[in-house]
Write a structure and sequence with these properties.
Strand content: 15-25%
Strand order of the largest sheet: 4-7-6-5-8-9
Structural class: alpha+beta
Shape: globular
Helix content: 40-55%
Length: about 375
Amino acid sequence: MQKLKAICIFISRLLLGATFVFSGFVKAIDPLGTVYKLHDYLEAIHLEQFSADWLLLVAAVILSTLELAMGVFILLAIGRRQVSKCAAVFMFIMTAITLWIYIYDPVQDCGCFGDAIKLTNGETLLKNIILFACAMVIARWPLEIQRLLSRQNQWIIVQGTGIVSVALSIWCLYDLPLIDFRPYHVGADIQAGMTVPEGAEEPVFETTFILEKDGVRKEFGLDDYPDSTWTFIDSKTVTIKEGYIPPIKDFSIVTQEGEDITHEVLSDSSYTFLLISPSLKYADDQNFGTIDQTYEYSQDNEYNFYCLTASGEEDISHWKDITGAEYAFCNTDGTTLKTIIRSNPGMLLLKKGVVIGKWSHNRLPSTEELDAITRRK
């Protein structure tokens, strides 16, 4: 009996600790992804007034640090009594939340593991029930978890874990996620990611564009997209019929005149630069000079350059005024743009639909770096 208890404690410690470490790490390297998911939760419970970006960002960093720290402390048996109790309370709360998600289905993905692992709401609930059971086991017998470090040296891990987690989040905010789990990572073929395997039943999506003219807002589809006298406000894509869903399902590029140039861009055998900005109103304009240099580089080398945004005409005009932008602007779904790159703005370099390069606005490449890339590929 004693041996069975020891095995249960060991398995619970390993499973709970490793899950916390992994979950905390994927959140730490993609804090903006966590912000977007928290925003979805607040919208689902009609608390959008608390969805200020800075507040959600602080919450995202705290959550990732808490999970990573608990995981490390459980694995190394640091602060066994306190940490085991915290883990049990944390898992009770998470299990209650995922039970609510399972019943009412307010979001399609809980975001537990960021973009690294996608779980259905049912799988998430089952996972949390198992982890809650593990947390209860170590909370019941915390002192039977064997230490791997002396008490005198534990402070190094305690302080180091917090510092590393916060520093990792700050760096990935400044640059881009250390590991990119999304289907737009460097080396990804966007066209292949949009392809449905032969024989698979295809889902049917409908994209609706919301535009305004003379104070009147109307919804239009691709077939009846109006002329440029209408101002783009927003767009939304809904599933009309379920089926096989490819990793990339809502990527499209529509010019301001309403022309869909997605295939043209993805099949271009030369290089194409895509400046990505979900919202130009909130885009960082400090590095517009480097962006303009990249545009000039594209012109000199006869490469295409487009700015993809979900912003309306007013925000586009304002961006042009403050940056002197001369490149073409196109409309793309805002959620898609946030998925493509965790930077506003950010830059992609494509060739035949394959992502060759990807940069935050804080680390845009110089012309020398671009030369090295385009001459090599």
